[in-house]
Amino acid sequence: LSLYSSPARETKYVENPQTQLEEGVSRLRHVMEPYTAWCQSLLVCCTFLCINSALCSDFFSEGYEFLQNPPAGFYPRLGVIGFAGIVGLFLARGSRIKKLVYPTGLMGIGASMYYPQQAVAIAKVAGTQLYDWSLQGYIAVESLWKDN
């Protein structure tokens, strides 16, 4: 608590009234606010698309060239892998998890038959990632167990 009392304030803040021009500009800004926000979001999207269009055009042109001159046996392999996915969808009636796991698993098995080196490389990376995640989970559970 203060030992001295503060003097009463006798000043009051008085705001100047707005002119008609200021009121008109304020009304116009409030009316145009949704449209300016839409234009700003459109500008952001267009900028993003323009930056990435060069990357996308390179990607699609390479894909188009690859499909024009595919390696020998590419389309039959693609057909077998796609058919495995359709069979997986047929077998996965009922559960949503089955609809995710069966087609993906059967397509992975089909692709690994035709591309074994790539399948081994993917399996190694997936195995190390799975090991790291399980180790992190074990450490988290262990720390919770020790805290309690």
UniProtKB/TrEMBL annotation:
Checking Pfam families in the record gives: ApoO
From the UniProt record, give one GO term of the biological process aspect.
cristae formation
Taken from the UniProt entry, a GO cellular component term is: MICOS complex
Role description: Component of the MICOS complex, a large protein complex of the mitochondrial inner membrane that plays crucial roles in the maintenance of crista junctions, inner membrane architecture, and formation of contact sites to the outer membrane.
**TM helices/strands, residue ranges:** 74-92
Predominant cellular place of this UniProt entry's protein: mitochondrion
Q: Which family does it belong to?
A: Belongs to the apolipoprotein O/MICOS complex subunit Mic27 family.
| Protein name (Swiss-Prot/TrEMBL) | MICOS complex subunit
Q: How does it assemble?
A: Component of the mitochondrial contact site and cristae organizing system (MICOS) complex.
> Where does this polypeptide localize?
Mitochondrion inner membrane; Mitochondrion membrane
Please indicate if the UniProt record lists Membrane as a keyword: yes
Q: Which gene encodes it?
A: Apoo
UniProt keywords (A-Z) are: Membrane, Mitochondrion, Mitochondrion inner membrane, Transmembrane, Transmembrane helix
Q: By its UniProt entry, which InterPro entries does this protein fall under?
A: MIC26/MIC27, MIC26/MIC27_animal
